[in-house]
Amino acid sequence: MSYSSSVAQDTLAAAQLEMAGNPNALALRRPFDPVAHDLEASFRLTRFADLKGRSCKVPQDVLGKLVESLQQDYSQQEQDQFMHVAIPRIGIGLDCSVTPLRHGGLCLVQTTDFFYPLVDDPYMMGKIACANVLSDLYAMGVTECDNMLMLLGVSTKMTEKERDVVIPLIMRGFKDSALEAGTSVTGGQTVINPWCTIGGAATTICQPNEYIVPDNAVMGDVLVLTKPLGTQVAVNAHQWLDQPERWNRIKLVVSEEDVRKAYHRAMDSMSRLNRIAARLMHKYNAHGSTDVTGFGLLGHAQNLASHQKNEVSFVIHNLPVIAKMAAVAKACGNMFQLLQGHAPETSGGLLICLPREQAAAYCKDIEKQEGYQAWIIGIVEKGNRTARIIDKPRVIEVPAKD
């Protein structure tokens, strides 16, 4: 892992040893510093970027044009190199790349992602970032990750004290989430950057039966969503508690306590791995999936629909939203476009195409294992590989976290 010379070597070395499980890490830590303790308690990580979380994504239509040349090169390479391999090569436009290997019917599954801080707790920000990277694997039904790398940008706006206290906390959160996923962080890259960034890369080697190609939806399937919407609204509303001119726009529809509960519900949701959801996709014969992140529910639904082999379309009827966040979004003049499906989500749930007769059992099973609901939100019908939300979708208020 490469570090800039301006990053405090002793503190970061301790965090790096902790990631490797080295007991000597504590010896490299500085003694308790009351100034650092106070800083951690009052710290606002979101000060170090002007965009939040997955709202940093290039617009979907622009991105499509930018990657056209890659798609052309990739298609030609596929024809030239992989005609003899039974495993399909998957890449541009989907959640992961799947590359057939030269040996033994195995394939390499990889993904990478990074974004800007959207919560103020550095440790939770690290956990959310790691969960977000892993979600791309889980969206393909891959439940085991063999290795992770961490990508970290240390903001030039941070003081030395802020950097030395906060960056190890982000790293620890990322590491702990990786351990929860049954994998480890073995390296990466850390640089100095105007804005703070956090993300990584996830890699696994697997057999074809360990992943689900997301192109087999059939007419009559239903759409299941495994996490509520509204994370971007919740984190913005929480930040507005300290901005009177913005808080005045929403205070008639939501209380300060409502906002704090929604914020904690959002953090809890974003840091939760989609691993169980991915495992159950195999049990209940899922026909495809994607994770809902920066393009919003509708953007990701449209992308998934466009890759289907059959002539089908997705129709979304229900929108599970963190409690009170639909009202907040409306009070803001619809700037988030939450009910239209365009609000960015960070480390959101899986949107899964399931056989109708399996969907209710899937939702019951995931609630039993995780303690959290999943929802049937739409249907797959005959169509031209598009997705839409009906004019007046049913908003399901998902209780906020106490």
TrEMBL record:
GO molecular function per UniProt: ATP binding; selenide, water dikinase activity
GO BP annotations, alphabetical order: selenocysteine biosynthetic process
Domain of life: Eukaryota
Keywords attached to this entry: ATP-binding, Kinase, Nucleotide-binding, Selenium, Transferase
Residue ranges occupied by any PurM-like C-terminal domain in the UniProt entry: 220-389
Name recorded for this polypeptide: Selenide, water dikinase
Residue ranges constituting the PurM-like N-terminal domain according to the UniProt record: 95-203
GO cellular component: cytoplasm
UniProt cross-references to InterPro entries, sorted A to Z: PurM-like_C_dom, PurM-like_C_sf, PurM-like_N, PurM-like_N_sf, SPS/SelD
